[in-house]
Backbone:
């Protein structure tokens, strides 16, 4: 077995090949059996477009989340058959499950998203309750500021050969 073939049978290498090349190019490099094993690393990106809504208003957040709700995957699961004596029939008990999708924004947007879900608590369907979306705070600016502080602390043009500096 050559070194290249050994590298393509390594699970970690396969993951990175699939991530870097994409599914079409990776299928030329990896055989399809191994590609199926690692297909969960490939994600689908969907452009969501622009919505001219004000995220500071709860009713607009409800409309934004209702629009994004169409991308939440659902699965219907039949739990069991139950006999109901009042109507003298057997009824199937089903449950609809959703796969949670993050709804990221700043802290205020995440709080308004949770408020929108609370406002829709009594809706009959999962999509009406906005159940598949999980509002989370994504503090991008805080992360950038932290990296800026680290850069200013560790970088010096006079310490090129020193250990632990940039």
Residues:
């Amino acid at each position: 077995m050559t070194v290249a073939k050994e590298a393509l049978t390594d699970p970690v290498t396969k993951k990175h090949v699939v991530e870097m090349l994409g599914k079409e190019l990776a299928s030329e490099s990896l055989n399809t059996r191994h590609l199926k094993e690692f297909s969960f690393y490939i994600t689908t990106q969907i452009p969501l477009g622009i919505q001219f809504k004000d995220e500071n208003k709860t009713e607009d957040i409800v409309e934004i989340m209702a629009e994004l709700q169409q991308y939440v995957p659902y699965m219907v699961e039949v739990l069991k058959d139950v006999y109901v004596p009042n109507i003298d029939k057997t009824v199937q008990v089903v449950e609809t499950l959703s796969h949670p999708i993050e709804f990221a924004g700043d802290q205020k947007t995440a709080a308004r998203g949770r408020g929108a879900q609370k406002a829709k608590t009594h809706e009959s369907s999962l999509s009406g309750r906005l159940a598949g979306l999980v509002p989370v705070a994504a503090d991008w600016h805080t992360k950038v500021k932290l990296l800026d502080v680290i850069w200013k602390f560790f970088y010096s043009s006079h310490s090129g050969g020193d250990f632990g500096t940039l």
